[in-house]
Write a structure and sequence with these properties.
Keywords: Membrane, Transmembrane, Transmembrane helix. By secondary structure, this protein is an alpha+beta fold. The chain is 50% helix and 12% strand. It has two domains: 89 residues, no CATH class; 94 residues, no CATH class. Strands 1-2-3 form a three-stranded antiparallel beta sheet. Strands 5-6-7 form a three-stranded antiparallel beta sheet. Strands 4-8 form a two-stranded parallel ribbon.
């Protein structure tokens, strides 16, 4: 999909059709309906240190947090296996669930360093628990990652590829022949995508060909 991203106009161009993900679409795809939409995620001018946030989130000691923090490519982060042990063994069940959710955000939604969760994800996760709308952040990070890959003509898309993929398919329903009713309260597009079996013969070249030949009647 990076091949069809136009960094200058921040949209996808498929043949003659221009499209871009919207805040409303991402919110619907993520089934987010309990956030304060006018309370936007921003970085605090004097944020709490990564170590303090980690201690509070995991309910662990200063010494434990100090040992877990690593530097990878100038980025402060913690290895996944540190959280895995807590997810399996922490005496507080709510902490287990929160740490498991943090791992999903760090490893799948906002992956930067394979096998590690970076400091920015901990900050983002804390804001999410406060009911702050995360969709703008996810959308901006998606645009930034796509643009960097396209401009460099190399690199790896490091934001939520699954979410972007489901957004694409939700519009090209004639290609897939399985329309997504993303704004329906009783339908979860991401869950439906996970349950779907992909044919093994589908290749990158196949999708490039589909995208290059899309016309107005193929897009909903």
């Amino acid at each position: 999909m990076v091949k069809f991203w136009d960094p200058a106009y921040q949209c996808f161009t498929f043949n003659q059709e221009d499209m871009t993900p919207t805040i409303e679409e991402y919110a619907a795809l993520l089934c987010i309906d309990n956030v304060q939409f006018y309370k936007i995620y921003v970085k605090e001018p004097k944020p709490m240190t990564f170590k303090k946030k980690l201690m509070r989130l995991a309910n662990m000691t200063d010494t434990w947090a100090e040992k877990q923090i690593k530097k990878k490519n100038e980025t402060s982060c913690i290895p996944w296996f540190s959280l895995r042990d807590l997810v399996l063994n922490h005496p507080d069940m709510l902490k287990r669930v929160n740490l498991f959710a943090l791992a999903i955000y760090g490893l799948i939604v906002f992956p930067k360093i394979i096998g590690y969760i970076e400091v920015a994800v901990v900050d983002f996760f804390e804001r999410l628990k406060q009911g702050i709308n995360p969709v703008l952040t996810i959308l901006v990070e998606t645009f930034r990652s796509l643009s960097i890959c396209r401009r460099k003509e190399e690199g790896r898309f490091i934001r939520c590829a699954q979410l972007l993929n489901v957004w694409i398919l939700s519009h090209f329903w004639k290609v897939e022949r399985t329309p997504f009713h993303m704004f329906s309260k009783i339908f979860a597009p991401l869950e439906a995508d996970l349950e779907k079996e992909w044919p093994k013969e589908v290749t990158e070249q196949y999708w490039v060909s589909v995208f290059q030949n899309l016309c107005a009647e193929d897009v909903t």
